[in-house]
Amino acid sequence: MRDHLVPIVMGLVAVGLFFAFPYDLAFLTRVLVTIVLVLSVDLVLGYAGIPTLGQAAMFGTGAYAAGLFAIHVWGDPLAGLVVGAVAGAAIALVSGLVLMRTRGLTVIMLTIAVAAILHEIANRARDLTGGADGLRGIRMQPVLGLWEFDFIGRTGYWYALVVVIVVYVGLSILTRSSFGLGLRGIHDSPERMRAIGAPVYWRLVTAYTIGGGIAGIAGALNAQITQLVSLEGFAFSLSAEALIMLILGGTGRLVGAVIGVALFMTVHHFAAANDPFNWLFVIGAMVLVVVFFLPQGIISLPGILLRHLRGGRDADRA
Amino acid sequence: MPACGNSTSGAVMADTVLRLSGVTAGYGPTHILRDVDLSLEKGERLAVIGRNGAGKTTLLSTIMGIARLHSGEIRLDGDRIDVLSSYRRNAAGLGLVPQTRDIFKSLSVEENILCALRGDATLEEAYALFPRLKERRSNGGAQLSGGEQQMLAIARTLATRPRVVLLDEPLEGLAPVICEMLMRTFEDLARDGRHTIVLVEQHAEAALAFADRAVLMSNGRIVHDGPAADLRENQDLLHRHVGLDLNS
After folding, report:
1. Average pLDDT value over all residues in chain A
2. Which of A127-136, A303-312, B32-41, B113-122 is the least confident region?
3. What is the per-residue pLDDT across A249-277, written as a single tens digit (0 to 9) for each?
4. Nearest residue in B to A180, CA atom
């Protein structure tokens, strides 16, 4: 599917799901928020090739920043998103200036460390963050002064959908720009990109910062819709699951992030509902199958099937 | 040229574009180049020949800032560039076409060129130089033949608008017809007056036919530096250092 059609299809599917599953809007909204987070991982890992297991650092920071902003300053949702994005980007910039000087396993370990440090800071700063009890008392104003957040979650759902589409379109433009092409070049061969005039370090810092800003938006969105921020926002499991979702869908393609999240969370949702004790087996089996048979992710499946079909036809003709 | 270190000394000739003085370099602590002195005049065509392991690729890598400089200095238009990272050296006017080509496999032909475009360089310019690339513009970097990959590597480097083009064994592994086409392209580049060309090549005959001047490398040192025609006639030297007899 062409990338510019994805937001349209995503919008149509979301409209269909809204009417088909009116009592599952909380789950569907969680899927949309997670898509934003995984898109940020895709920019950082899939496009720029920065191995990360700490995107939760920026997600959690964005969530706390938006939550505190709503409680103490202004409850406007869009302003809160901007605050979340700036907070996530700031953490990514500061940590990225150090992280991007390292490579491979060191980067992975440091990204985990940054998230762990922020987790502990949020835990200790109980007076500000609520510590292990979480940040409560977030009251959001209506979106654009028109749409109140309701108990059923309709406003939250449409609001999250619009944010997902805007982030997707923005990333689509960015990844097609010369900056985005340069990131893919760096992923393939940083030495070559350097030799054709690209300041590789600064490009990576920029990509990591933008990715942090998007993760911050995801965190802010989550805080505004659930009206709660907990320490789980910094959890290692959140970063790890985001990475697994991206690998399932396929890295280096934005649509891969969307498909990966939809598949992982749907299977998770139904498997956990049917067998609360053994659902991890189902998830594990799914990851194993995809990694073994579709190492490029689910997104590569249509191409593989098409090649098999063409191969079959060619064999028939012969 | 901005941000390129110390300014030129009066001793540097007005039309010397690149000068290496007492350069010792290698990878990590290893020394591969030893005490190399070399200068290039603007618009010159220089051939660098020698056996495998003589230090030819390391010479280009050192100029480009990829190999580690242990001692000596490198100046471009009189300004020191050895203190600059390779991306700044490219911005200063150096362009390397690597032996390994290093095509970005996740990008199409067109995207490979687009991500290198600088200043007033255009895609159409690259396609005019290599029309074959236009036909293959949507193909992935991994779907190209060796010759097409080499064309793309050259087009991508030229898209950065280098004044000094460093070509590292561009004919390696290519069919004779492609080699001839590439040599004609190098001739055109050299004739346009905007490019100074350093050609490192195992095909010594082709390199010496192309160049005005040639250096012969052995064990990381320059053992001969002079007109290409003279070296072509010096069978003894060629035989000793390259194992080549051009008249046979």
Report:
1. 94
2. A303-312
3. 999 999 999 999 999 999 999 998 888 88
4. B115
Q: Which value does ipTM take for this structure? A: 0.84
Tokens of B205: 């005959």
Residue B10 resides in a domain: no
Interface of B with A (CB under 8 A): 64, 66, 85-87, 90-91, 95-96, 98, 102, 104-107, 111-112, 114-118, 141, 156-157, 159-160
pLDDT at B236 over 80: yes
- Residue A184 and residue B156: Cβ atoms within 8 Å? no
Examine residue B83 and state whether it is found in any structural domain, yes or no.
yes
When comparing pLDDT for B237 and A52, which is higher?
A52
Residue A169 corresponds to which amino acid? V
pLDDT at A308: 86
B248 assigned to some structural domain: no
**Residue B225 covered by a domain:** yes
Domain count of chain A? 1
CB pairs under 8 A between A and B: 65
* CB-CB contact of A48 with A187 (8 Å): yes
Q: How many structural domains does chain B have?
A: 1
User: Could you tell me the two tokens for A121?
Assistant: 């800071």
User: Whole domain around residue B46: which residue ranges?
Assistant: 16-242
- Please list, in sequence order, all residues whose beta carbon lies within 8 angstroms of the beta carbon of residue B77, skipping any fewer than 6 positions away: B1, B4, B8, B17, B93
**Residue A309: which CATH number?**
1.10.3470
Query: Which pLDDT score is estimated for B1?
Result: 34
Please tell me which residue of chain B has the smallest CA distance to A47: B106
Q: A177: domain range?
A: 3-317
B69: tokens are 């400089």
pLDDT for residue B6 = 40
In single-letter form, the type of residue at position B140 comes to: G
Residue B203: per-residue pLDDT: 87
Task: Report CB contact under 8 Å: B91, A197.
Answer: yes
- Give me the pLDDT at residue A256, please: 96
Distance from A193 to chain B by nearest Cα, in Å?
8
The reported pLDDT for the residue numbered A280 is 86
Residues of chain A contacting B156 with CB distance shorter than 8 Å = 196
Domain CATH for B55: 3.40.50.300
* Amino acid letter, A174: L
Asked if B5 and B81 count as a contact pair (C-beta separation under 8 A), the reply is: yes
Q: Please spell the DSSP secondary structure of B160-188, one letter per residue.
A: T--SEEEEESTTTT--HHHHHHHHHHHHH
Beta strands in chain A (DSSP E): none
Q: What's the pLDDT at A2?
A: 67
Residues B200, B97: Cα–Cα separation, whole Å:
10
Is the pLDDT reported for residue B46 higher than 90? yes
Rounded Cα–Cα distance for residues A217 and A228 (Å): 15
